[in-house]
Predict the structure of Diaminopimelate decarboxylase.
Amino acid sequence: MPMPSAFQNRLFPKLTDIAQHFATPFHIYDEKGILETGASLKQQFSSIPGFREYFAVKALPNPSILKLMQSMGFGFDCSSIAELALARSIGARAEDILFTSNNTSPEDFSAALADGGCILNLDDISLIPKVPEMPETICFRYNPGPRRTGNAIIGNPVEAKYGITHEQVIPAYQMAMERGVKHFGLHTMVVSNERNHAYMVETARMLLSLAADLLTSLGLRLSFLNIGGGLGIPYRPEEDALDIASMGVEITELFREFKEKHGYMPALLMESGRYMTGPHGVLVTRAINRKDTYRHYVGVDACMSALMRPGMYGAYHHIEVLNKQASPQDKPVDVVGSLCENNDKFAIQRPLPPIEEGDILIIHDTGAHGHAMGFNYNGQLRPQELLLRQDGSTARIRRKETLDDLFATLHFEETILRP
Ligand SMILES: *Cc1c(COP(=O)(O)O)cnc(C)c1O
């Protein structure tokens, strides 16, 4: 099942009260589930010294969640000035932060290097002379091009705007060494939402092979290899989970072999977002209308502003109705928001139990790239975020947006350029 049953057991008995107290709609995240997933991730890679997860802040950019990551010793993968500011707001500094930008601006570099700096992950060879002052540690993002196929979601690496080519690897490290960089890493991200662990193992193998090349040609020992994010989760009930244990065993074995052959072992970094928080969040929304025209519609009090993935990618998010069991007699409905866009649908022709006005719907797997992707088109406001804590209490960790928030950018000092 997409949403872990332990999360269901913790949440569902309380959900009517939570919905009454906080009012719908809201995303709610499961503290215990996030901590358990983090602990298990660390466990799988504990034989590789220096293993560290850098949580991809863009997946769930809420300080309360980032603090959970921090409590597990994780760092943060940031790709914008706002994400840097968020990570630093909870005390992350220097090697706690990886800055993985692309099409990087001078402002991005200044922000990344200010306030204790960070590990810079450079997306292109042309950026080397543009870094105002090189930090001690940098890495490059590698794009294997035709050497890898990527997966259906992230697409063909040859068409991806990210990273340096295979031929640019040696010159890039050489140039950075000449600029005085002391420690190096190597990064790549070739898949997204991939549940076949063999992809990640291949990625580790590919980076280790480049590490061997760099040792031979430049005498360079890489401090770390970063295999990126992209670990997948099952959004559909019939899908298998990623075999994280096999991934851990197989990657650890590759690192061991590398050490035997080359006399040193780089650390392993990863920057998962979805895997860490995706299944540990749900969007809770209430049915407010039913409509029977050419199709049957259930209108809910949330819309695309809370969750873009179905409308944007046609992504499947499993839906349950609180206290109603699915059955083979269920009739297909479209579950819709109120935005003036026909793709504002959480589900299309989905068999669901008969829904009445007032029923509570649970939309699964919104813990990553859910609230964060929300937008304000059509003046639709983003909902609040709640945290179901380990002690059973529920806390609001972000309030819902207001019209004042929406109109804030209309208050400014007038300035006119006269002809
Ligand atoms: C988006 C992103 C991630 C996180 O991806 P997930 O699919 O959430 O694991 C990690 N690294 C980079 C560079 C990204 O752009």
The chain has two domains: 31-277, 278-408.
